Structure formats: structure tokens, C-alpha cells
Amino acid sequence: MTSIEEAIQFVKEHSKPLLKSIYKTVEKAGGYELFENVDSPINMPPFRQSAMDGYALNLHDNLTYQLIGEVKAGDVRQTILKPGEAVRIFTGAPVPNSSNAVVMQEKVIANGDNISIENKVEVNMNIRPLGEQVKKGEQALAKNTKLTPAAIGYLSSLGISKVNVFKKPSIALITTGNELVEAGSELTYGKIYESNSKMLLSALYSLKFYDVTIHKVEDDFEKTQSKLDTVINENDLVIITGGISVGDYDFVGKALNTLRITEHFYKVKQKPGKPLFFGTKQNTAVFALPGNPAAALTCFYVYVYITLQKMMNHQDIELPRVNATSISAFKKFGDRPQFLKAIHINGSVEILEGQSSAMQQTFALSNALVFMREEVTNIEIGDTVEVILLPV
Description:
Low-confidence stretches: none
Shape: elongated
Mean pLDDT: 94
Distance between the termini: 32 Å
CATH superfamily of the largest domain: MoaB/Mog-like domain
CATH topology of the largest domain: Molybdenum Cofactor Biosythetic Enzyme, Chain A
Radius of gyration: 31 Å
Structural class: alpha+beta
CATH architecture of the largest domain: 3-Layer(aba) Sandwich
CATH class of the largest domain: Alpha Beta
Helix content: 10-25%
Number of helices: 7
């Protein structure tokens, strides 16, 4: 049986960066990373711009100026000021080329067509120069920059409508089991509502992976093999839940073997999630997760998360781990390392009740997993424990 450390290393070694690009409209590029440098097509700002509401001046030696008009944001007419003349101006408005300073309105006393300023004004005061942020032809954002809302706003302000970004993996989620029915359907005897696909879809969406399709397969060998063959050939990552154990109606393992998927490991010495499979076919990564929801989600965060980050060519590919003080006691049965659902707050962690691999309610309250290594059998209140912080 593969150890956790060996399994993680196999995932790291056999998960490859996609290094593909796709053009996205700026408004749909949030969360992506730039595939290439982006140069500015314009100066920003594209004109000398007032930094505040006040008065644009053509400086002279007197503190009194004649007011000859106003300039508001969006005006295109170029006002010409003689020395000693001023115009009322507003934040973001173009500063006339004949003006060499802007004084804030709080520093001005207005009297009809004349204004008086309190103190001498420095040249270029309160004027944002042409190209202050970035000049035309200069690099606006570098390759690998993650496009945050601020970055999207910045690119839009430069008039950029499309960007070339790293393509995210296409992902297929496959659920197996004749017992599964969709929410909203009648729950007849022997059936359960299917939840794994929604759970994993939500986990993927929270990590900004949106190219996801969902497939359901009955407990039938030919149908399982056919569906797997199709999705493996059409996607970068395939995640299967259920059907990977050794029961008479668990056909996933047999189908993967028939399809000649290269197996890197099957079964990991851990709890929950022992019946975990990881393999590859050419550039497609394949995970078969246990059917029990808590086990499936645990395996997603510990292993599948690494593959997703590797595919995006990231450097930080594992969820963060910290030490915390346990405010709960826990006794482990058996010798397998265990991932315990927990709540981590300000350096303390509470191990929750209900650690069964089928229990979703406890996981719904968790924001962390306590990792209990093989040699550890008990956790006492006050012990320092290793904690994996889950995405929120």
C-alpha cells in the first residue's frame, strides 16, 4: 500500500503544466494568469489630468487670478490661459496645456470673476502628468500576473478588451452508482441523493476552475469503460467518484486497466480515502476517488489540488500547513494516518465529532484538516498538531 508521502510525490512527478493559452475578453479573464507581457497601447493618463477639484492656473507673481471659465471631466475643448488667468477645474478633467498648476478649492477665496490663493503654488502641483501610470509602449503587466479585479480594471482603463492567458484545464467529473438520484427527484427505497458532483464542482469553482462537465455512469462495465474512454480523450483532468473499490459492482478499476491508463498508485495508507487511484494517459491525469463524500473531498484537497496547481504551473502547489494547539482530545484506532475534520481559529483547532468518511455534516462546518501521523495514537487537549488549511 502506498504511503501518503509517496502518493503526494507521485502526483507531483506525474502532473504536468498545461502551458497552453487562450484569448479571453477582459471582463471574463478574472482569476486567469497572463500568458505573455501586456504593453500599454496608450499613455495613462492620456492627458495632463487634474488630481482634485480646484482651479487650474497659469502662474504669475501675484496671488490673485482672473477666472475665465471651467473645465470638467470629459471636456474636449482646449482652453488657453494667459499668465494670471485661471479656470475652475474638477477631478479627472484635462488640465489645459497653458496651465502649470492646480490649486485645491479649499485654498482659494472666490470673488466674482477673480480668485485669491492663500500661498504660493508650486509648478505642476496637483497635476497628474501624461503617462504617469504607464507610457505608451511600456509594459503594463508582466507574464504570469494573476488577473485580480484591480488588474481587470487597470487593463480596461488602457482600452484593452482581450488578453492572452494561460488556459485552465478542462475537467470531467464522473459519478458512479445505481443508487444515486438527482435532488428534486422522488427518493424511493434504496436510493440516495447524489452529492459528490455538486460538492466537487463547488470546490473547483471556488478555486476558479470553470471548464467542468459532469457525467453519471451506471454500475455497468461496458458503459463505464465507454464513458471513461470518451472523457479521458477529451479532457485534461478526469475525477471519478465511486466504483474504485473491490466490490462486485465496482467497475472503474477494471475499466481503467482495460483502457491502459498508467497506474501510479492505487490504495493509500490513510483514513479516510484508502481506495484512491491516480494514473495518467498521455497528458491527461485521472483520479478515482472513494464514493464516500468526506473521503472524496479529503482526497481532492490533499491530492487533486496539487495536480490543478501543477497544471497551472504554480509554485505553491499544496494547501498551507500550520501548527496549532488542539482544544479537543481524540483517540485513533488502527495504524493508518488520519485526516480529521476540524475548525481552526487564531492558532487553536477543534477536532469535530463525526469523523466517518460518509459524514458530510461535520465537513460542512470545517475549515481545516488535522493530520494525525501514523505513529500518533492520541491527541490530548493542549497538544500541538499539524493542520491543513482548507480554501475558504
